Amino acid sequence: MNSQASSFRAFAISLDGKATELAELPATGASPESAYVWTHLHVQQEGAREWLLDEAKLDRTVVEAMMAEDTRPRALFKDDDVMLIFRAMNLHEGEPPEEMISLRIWIDERRVITTRLRDIKAVEEIQASIASGQSPASPAELLKSITSRMFARMEPFLDDLEDSIAAVEEQIASGSELDLCEGMLPMRRQVAVFRRYVTPQKTVLQKLHEHPIPCLCSEDQQHFGEELDRVTRYVEEIDELSA
C-alpha cells in the first residue's frame, strides 16, 4: 500500500481560532468548544470507509463518492449539507500538470471532511498555515481557501500553454519546417485533458453560488460567484485554444 495511504490529518478549530491537531480520527462531530473539525483522509487508508459510514454518519451514496478513485467534478446536495468534487493541478515533479488530482469535500456547519488519492499542494499549504496558528474561522472559510488556491494555480499553466501554441502557430505560418503534428498534437492533448476537468468545475461553482445552504452565508456565495467568473474565463480560454 502507498505510504500515504496510512496517513490522515485532523484539526479541531476552536471558537477563538486556535487549532489542535488530533492524533486519532475524531468522533462524529465537533466538541462544544470547537467551531469545527477538519479531517483529511487518504481513500486507501485502512478503515476510512467504515469511519465515514459509522463515525461521520455520512450517507452511503456520499461515502461511495468520497472513496471513489476515478471521479469527475460534481456537487451533491444532501438536505442542508453538500459534497463537492474538484480537480486540482498535478504539481508532482515530472508529471503532466493537466492530469488533475481529485479532491472530494464534505462540508456542513461543524465539519469539513476531505479525501484524496494524491497529495494536493493547496491542501498542504493550508495545513501548514493551520499548524503555524493561522486557521480558517469556519468550514466556509476553509472551503474558500482551498478552492481559491486550487483555481489560482490553473492560470499560469493556461497562460504558458497559450503562449506555446501561439509560438508553434507562428513558426508554421512563417514557413518553418516544423511538422504541424509534432508541434501541435501534444499541446492539443493537454488542452483536451484540461478541458475535461475544468469545464464541469464551472457547473459545481455555479451550484455553490446559487444553492443556499446553512454553512454558506450570502457573502460566501458571492465569493463562489467570483470564482465562477474566474473559471468561466478559463473555460473560454480553453475553448479558444481548442478552435
What does this structure look like?
This protein has 243 residues and is α+β, with helices and mostly antiparallel strands. The chain has helices spanning 48-55, 60-67, 121-131, 139-152, 154-173, 180-210, 218-242; strands at 8-14, 19-21, 34-42, 74-78, 81-88, 101-107, 111-116. Strands 2-1-3-7-6-5-4 form a 7-stranded mixed sheet, sandwiched between helices. Helix 4 runs parallel beside helix 7 (218-242), helix 5 runs antiparallel to helix 6 (180-210) and helix 5 (154-173) runs parallel beside helix 7. The longest helix is centred in the C-terminal third of the chain and has 31 residues, at 180-210. The protein is elongated and about 70 Å long. The protein starts with 7 loop residues before the first strand and ends with a helix. Residues 1-6 have low confidence and may be disordered.
Layout of SSEs?
Elements: E1 8-14, E2 19-21, E3 34-42, H1 48-55, H2 60-67, E4 74-78, E5 81-88, E6 101-107, E7 111-116, H3 121-131, H4 139-152, H5 154-173, H6 180-210, H7 218-242
Parallel strand pairs: 3-7
Antiparallel strand pairs: 1-2, 1-3, 4-5, 5-6, 6-7
Helix pairs in contact: 1-2, 3-4, 4-7, 5-6, 5-7, 6-7
